Amino acid sequence: MFRGSMVALVTPMLEDETVDFNALEKLVEFHIASQTDVIVAMGTTGESATLNMQEHCEVVRFVVEKVNGRIPVIAGTGANSTSEAIDLTQCAKDSGADACLLVTPYYNKPTQEGLYLHYKKVAETVDIPQILYNVPGRTACDLLPETVIRLAKVNNIIGIKEATGEINRVAQIKAGVSDDFDLYTGDDASAVDFILAGGHGGISVSANVVPKQLHDVYAAALAGDESKARELDAPLQVIHKDLFVESSPIPVKWAVAEMGLIGLAIRLPLTPLSSSCQPIVRKALLEAGVNLK
What we know:
Layout: E1 4-8, H1 21-33, E2 38-41, H2 53-67, E3 73-76, H3 82-95, E4 99-103, H4 112-125, E5 130-134, H5 136-139, H6 145-151, E6 157-162, H7 168-174, E7 182-185, H8 191-196, E8 201-204, H9 211-222, H10 226-233, H11 237-242, H12 250-258, H13 278-287
Parallel strand pairs: 1-2, 1-8, 2-3, 3-4, 4-5, 5-6, 6-7, 7-8
């Protein structure tokens, strides 16, 4: 349903930690001009865990309004409470989002049956395309391929963002789902391998700072041009690595601020990028050809 480079958009904030909607509009225009294929608003990179429901819905509505149909908008609506995930998903639908992205319920560590029933209930309650999101390194639970295959049979569940970096999961999932079930990577470093193995794109942190480059990388990989995709991605590997030198989205928000697109504010319990890590990220940006302010 969606293809290519999908930015996991950061949420710009003012010094008082409220959302900076002027900067958010600037980011929307930056990504559309840079050929980003899809904007993901209020994903986990957007600090969804620390925004309240009203703020969350306001950001999604604002992005949908400013994009105005030029590219698809996916709203992050996952939560560790099933009822909250339903409310956020309904809000995204009412706001006009094209689909929703639901991270596995963090901290709870549900069983595979619990994960199945969680996603099934959200999908059956709100009629909007929904994408599963598996990132066990952040949530402490792993949505296993056999559970993904079960969920692929549920109406409204159209794909998965698989962020383990385990390329073999592409084949494992594809073996049990229909051809219209989409697989997106959430691991920038292995994205080319993921797409060449049969994936359909990526929901990316790196796309916040190198959107045009990643659009070209993913387009080449989707076209099956392995040599071109690897050649284009090689200078970006330093970005893929060093944007995780501290917990994401700390480094990427600092990087986008260094590009002059947003301010430095980030919401507690996250803190600004430490002074010891700033040279590492700056060097990575410059090596990847990013223009800094």
